[in-house]
Amino acid sequence: MGYDMEMDDFYDEEEFNEKELERLKKEILEEAKKVVDNYVENPSDISGSVVNIHENSPFLDVDENNEPRHSGSRWTKLIKTKL
Q1: What burial letters (b/e) apply to 39-75, b meaning 16+ CB within 10 Å?
Q2: SS3 assignment, position 62
Q3: 4-11: which pairs have CB atoms within 8 A and are 24 or more residues apart?
Q4: What is the C-alpha to C-alpha distance for residues 64 and 32, in angstroms, rounded to an integer?
């Protein structure tokens, strides 16, 4: 009898969890739809990508010909050092 009651409790809890997950999925989906609708109505000028480069950054270094030292594929060669 104890085992049967434990299994019933397990299935009741499992059913509750499934219902709760479905409710949360619906809520998240509705919020996502609101975000999309809001963006369609009020598009942003910001692309979502922000790059900050400090004034002393090696990305701003130039070579003897006043060409950027780290541009294009040369950026991948930049070595980061610890301060």
Answers
A1: eeeeeeeeeeeeeeeeeeeeeeeeeeeeeeebeeeee
A2: strand
A3: none
A4: 52
For residue 67, the model assigns a pLDDT of 79
The Cα–Cα gap between 57 and 81 comes to 12
pLDDT of 3 strictly over 70:
no
DSSP 3-state of 67: coil
Angstrom distance (rounded) from CA 26 to CA 32: 10
Residue 68 DSSP SS3: strand
Determine the Cα–Cα distance for residues 61 and 72; give it in Å rounded to an integer. 14
- Per-residue pLDDT tens over the stretch 34-81: 999 998 898 877 766 677 777 777 667 777 888 777 666 656 556 555
Could you tell me the pTM of the whole model? 0.42
pLDDT at 1: 47
Triad 19, 25, 26: Cα angle to 5°: 90
